[in-house]
Amino acid sequence: MAEATRYADEIIDDGFPWYAIRLFTTRQGEVKSYFEEQGFECFIPMQYVEAEGHDGRTHRTLRPVVNNLIFVKQSDEETTFRRVVQQADYKISVLRKAKDSREYSLIPHRQMYEFRLMCNPEVTMRKFLSIEQVQLKAGEEVYVKFGPFKGLSGRLVRSSKKYYLLKEVPGLGIMLKVSRWCCVPIEKKE
């Protein structure tokens, strides 16, 4: 539980929106380092995976959930960010508002804050979904009023006879197991 609390304490909501960047390279760590060297904060959703080591034992290692997606905080002017993207030596694409638009899509700060909290690798009852899978899920917009996820919002969906809080951002979705009794519809959150 201490690990989960420490992770939550490291995540702050400073009011800045985020960009989602699709990668066309296998060097996700290098792309992240590039943006961090340019002064941008980055986020890659991680999860623990059981992998067999050289000694034949299974080890728990932290790995990215998806290898072709990285989130970058808009802490500077968009013109600066565009210049950094154009100067990158990697093939990348910033998600746009529409296919024919030159405007970058921005993830609101509150939505990204909640998404990052839900991506805590110490939480075991969660599932990551592709954007196509997210669109297939029907659910009511809810607010978690009680329990360890108090304050989060999303859609309440059902999967495998269990209830999950679903949060989506461009390119990815995450579901956390919750009790439906601790959730209230958005309009009744008082």
TrEMBL record:
This is NusG-like N-terminal domain-containing protein. Pfam families: NusG. It comes from the Bacteria. Coiled coil: none annotated. Keywords: Transcription. Residues 18-115 form the NusG-like N-terminal domain. GO terms for biological process: DNA-templated transcription elongation. InterPro entries: NGN-like_dom (IPR006645), NGN_dom_sf (IPR036735).
